[in-house]
Amino acid sequence: MEICRQDQALEIRELDPFLAELLRQIPESTQPKDSPAADERLFSAPAAPEEKDLCAEWKVYVVPELRRLFQSATETVRQDLKQLQCTGKPFANCTLCIPLAHTDAWLSALNQARLAIAATYQFSDHELCDHYRSPLGSRRDLSLFQVNFYGFLQEFILREIEGNS
Amino acid sequence: MSRLSRKKETKFATTLVINFPHATLEAPTIEKKEATSQEIEMPWNVVVHNDPVNLMSYVTMVFQRVFGYPRERAEKHMLEVHHSGRSILWSGVRERAELYVQQLHGYLLLATIEKTV
């Protein structure tokens, strides 16, 4: 895999089928089914539990706005990911172009996915720092690899944004 | 701005509650509640809490964007969050503190508002 800047876009080239599949899983990873832990992390409380009124009002007025904001970012990423619908050879490497105008949406969706996965699997600090674990052991290991791979992409996007500003 | 923030604009105003216990008109009972000067002046802190998933570079970028802090100051707060578990990013009136927390939640940081002690 190779990532580089091309005019007004970031280009991920030579994307092998495994990594392409992990990217395709970003939208669904942002909203894991049956994971109250993920929902709790994405929509965390704005104050200590003693501030009952504030916490209750937050759920009514702010959480729906945040949900819309996150869904909008995820939708942008979903559209970009349509480039990965490989129509040629089934196991061919492919290329993904992320327009610079979409980088904020990508940062948000990648972050949503990382936080939701980490909350669902309750990864420890030690596990999150273990970047050399094989992704082939179990679903849990694969999910940890997913969190780290999305983090790597976030880092690259951040570097490009900083270079741009 | 969220409806929450608009609603809070009247938070410190004097509250009047008028009760009409009977059908016949009587002198209304007026309960007057005044916010103490301490409640009015007491600032609120915007606190960001540590989270092992969010990247350090991402957190720094968010502090720069939300609070307009220069990179050095944003990094200082990010490191405080990382090492001490929390950092007070801003202090001031409650409405603005709530707005900051809403923005930080939009970037998926763990942020809360707290009354200053």
Summarize it:
The complex is a heterodimer of chains A (165) and B (117). Chain A is built from 7 helices and 3 strands; from the N terminus they run E-E-H-H-H-H-E-H-H-H. With 165 residues, chain A is mainly α.
Explain this structure to me?
With 165 residues, chain A is mainly α. In chain A, 60% of the residues lie in helices and 11% in strands. Chain A has 7 helices and 3 strands; from the N terminus they run ββααααβααα. Chain A has helices at residues 17-24, 26-30, 36-42, 52-80, 103-121, 125-129, 139-164, and strands spanning 2-6, 9-15, 94-99. In chain A, strands 1-2-3 form a 3-stranded antiparallel β-sheet. In chain A, a hairpin with a 2-residue loop joins strand 1 and strand 2. In chain A, helix 3 crosses helix 5 (103-121) and helix 4 (52-80) packs across helix 5. The longest helix of chain A is centred in the middle third of the chain and has 29 residues, at 52-80. Chain A starts with a strand and ends with a helix. Chain B has 117 residues and is of the alpha+beta class. Chain B has a domain at 54-115: 2-Layer Sandwich (Ribosomal Protein L30, Chain: A), CATH 3.30.1390. Chain B is 42% helix and 24% strand. In chain B, the strands form 2 sheets. Chain B has a 3-stranded antiparallel β-sheet with strand order 4-3-5. A two-stranded antiparallel sheet of chain B has the order 1-2. Chain A binds chain B through residues 42-48, 51, 54, 57-58, 61-62, 65-66, 69, 107-108, 111-112, 114-115, 118, 123, 125, 128, 147, 151, 154-155, 158-159, 161-162, and chain B through 2-4, 7, 51-55, 57-58, 61, 98, 101-102, 105-108, 110-114.
